[in-house]
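I'll show a typical protein example:
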Amino acid sequence: SKFEAEPIRMVPAVMWIAYMYIVFFSDGILPGANALSLEQRTWEEVFNLSLNFFLVSPLLHLPFAPVVHPMLEGVFNVLLAWAAMFAGFLSDERKDKPNLLTFGPIVVGMQFLTSAFLLPYLAFRSPERDSEDIGTVFKEDISGDIQATVAEWRPLGALLGGVGSGAIVWSLIARPEFGGFNERWSSFIDLLSIDRVGSSFIVDLAIFALFQGWFVDDDLSRRGVAEEELMVLRNAAKFIPFFGLAAYLTFRPALPSIEESSN
């Protein structure tokens, strides 16, 4: 089995089971009520954050944009920008490398349930072939025209890195009624102490930081990069949370196109 061949897969598998229980069903491990309680405050918070997705509504001063704690908005939008960056690895799903869980829908699902989608994919994804056997991978090999376009879109990392940077700035200076840094930080910590949604976002950030590098070696192998090459970019993608991945997607070699190769 995949787990016998690569026991490391047990790490995301076990973490997924723990994550699902702790975030959605447990009482007392994380603050706030579990999902089965159907607490009105929780669903209102999720709805309000969704209305302020990527901060478009409050930046445009749209009349329906709700007022949410700016640090919670910042964490939420950094998390979704980070989740969207995994679209840069859609070449992991190809015609000659199908996965038990199709990666395109997984990336979409991560915009809603983040690690609940990422972790099982990491546990059950098809292994990449050895670098000497993989041959040339073309952009057109990626399953789905939209997925191929998004995966190899060069501005993806810079755009999402900019969204995340903007969200961090927003959390620090937006909504002056929340006070200066010390005041808004204190009120944010107080919010997290009673809030299941916000505390689960912090868990997701830690999981993304831990697993963002799991695709990198395979991705570089598909691009014809040997294990000892591009070490600075490789390590940045593995070990610098969020911004290292944004830089990697911006500066990694592109997959060739069949059309370009034939000319």
In short: The mean pLDDT is 94. Residues 156-173 form the longest helix (18 residues).
